[in-house]
Amino acid sequence: MKTFLFIPLDERPCNYDFPYLIFNDKDLAIKRVPFEYMGLKKKPGNVDKIKDFLLDNYKDANGAVIAIDTLLYGGIVPSRLHFFDYESVKQRLDILKEIKKNKPDFKIYAYSLVMRCPRYNDDDEEPDYYLHHGLDLFNRKYIQHRISLNIATDEEKNQLEEIKIPQEYIDDYESRREINCKINMDAVQFVKDKIIDFLIIPQDDSAPFGYTALDQEKIRNKVRENKVQDLVLTYPGADEVAHTLFSRLVNELHNRKPLVYLHYPSEACKKIIPCAEDRPLDISARYQIIAAGGLVASTIQEADLVFAINAPASDMIATQYREYSTNGYTIKRNLEEFVSFIEHCIYDLKKPVTIGDVGYCNGGDLRLISLIEQKNLYFKLSGYASWNIPCNSLGTALAMGIHTLYPYDKQSFYDFLVHRFVEDVGYCTLVRKIVREQYCEKMGLTIYEVDGQRGEFSKLVEKLIYEQVALYMPSIKDKYTMSDVYMPWNRTYEVGITTKYIGEIE
Description:
The protein is of the alpha/beta class and 506 residues long. The chain has helices at 13-16, 18-23, 47-57, 68-73, 86-93, 95-102, 130-148, 154-162, 167-192, 211-226, 241-253, 281-291, 335-347, 366-375, 390-403, 410-439, 456-472, and strands at residues 2-7, 28-32, 63-67, 107-111, 198-200, 232-233, 259-263, 295-296, 305-310, 353-357, 383-385, 480-486, 496-501. The protein has three domains: 2-117 and 173-252, UDP-N-acetylmuramoyl-L-alanine:D-glutamate ligase (3-Layer(aba) Sandwich), CATH 3.40.1190; 256-396, Rossmann fold; 409-506, no CATH class. The protein contains 17 helices and 13 strands. The chain has a six-stranded parallel beta sheet with strand order 2-1-3-4-5-6, sandwiched between helices. Strands 8-7-9-10-11 form a five-stranded parallel beta sheet, with helices on both faces. The longest helix has 30 residues, at 410-439.
């Protein structure tokens, strides 16, 4: 058995629990940072204790999967809010040098985010001034970037002149971004120096122009200069990247590069640019596959795994607005063929199939779920995911599918598979919209703040999930139980659930 240490991106289940639930088994022991060392949303984790966790345990482990943002700043949100100077942050990163010097065969798989720049006014996960100036910060740099490329319109130039942001906010924001970018450059150098064995620099909430695009360009140049293009990948993502790194780790432990065949409901689906991303869906999917240690299969016959990606054939929208779906969700794609192909792969070709359901952003596609229900394919699949932004779903579904290529515990697998349907469809698609529109105001709550992690609101959520799953996915209503339903960040966006599969295990 191999033992790998794990420093997650933050304390939410998607980061702290999901990789562990997928990959911790008899062949791979995952030792996580103790939960009490982690932070809570804007409250950073204890960076000194997190550092000590690495130093105290690496001698007895084979390697580590490390979220650099947690090691240096205490988590993903604290990385956008900290007041550390570059020198103190770099000192924390340098402990990886110490570890590698003392134990050269210790494998380090790491990821470090390009700091995001969301295009909205909201300070829930950003500095306070983002509540009033977030969209302006995004638009200002977006337009400046386009002007530098000589492609800005007159309308954009006029818009830039009207943007007024206090200079102190710009200075604060850009100084933090500068540190983030320098650390990412240092991490690339660590790959060149063989301190980090493989690195992903994901773009959280990216766009084709502006801050994230400019930082990404600097990083790509550094990667090319150091000739480490095969060991440093940059593409849209964040909360799913640990799943991808553990996938790569498992494939390398088995000395294998699985061939993954991609299938969509329409050729047009490949070309859409998903929500909060900067490139066509098919390009990102291929990055996910090579980052996970696989290769894209040219034919279904040679494939070890089928990655079925559900997407619209034109503009993607968030699941809460699904009643406004355009013909990109109907006549421009063929879900019936898509699901029939999945069925053929499973029953006739005997190929494992995992579904990345990115028909909508932030939840599952009920049209797809209806077909899965009709054919009762839930527990014939090797994976399913449809949570948060599309890259998160792709990375999770792919990781689940890759794990099933090797010996695995079926009970644990089914526990997590049913978890995905219950959370991604039951909560993200159905219940979240219900509680926001029908209950929050009535209970004196907001979508950003409920009555604690485990209050009356979470009890209501549990009740509604059972009801909605029974209504939309009746084939699984008697095949799972839930426990400890809670709201990790005391808001309506995400939910924490412990699930148990109680159906027949084939």
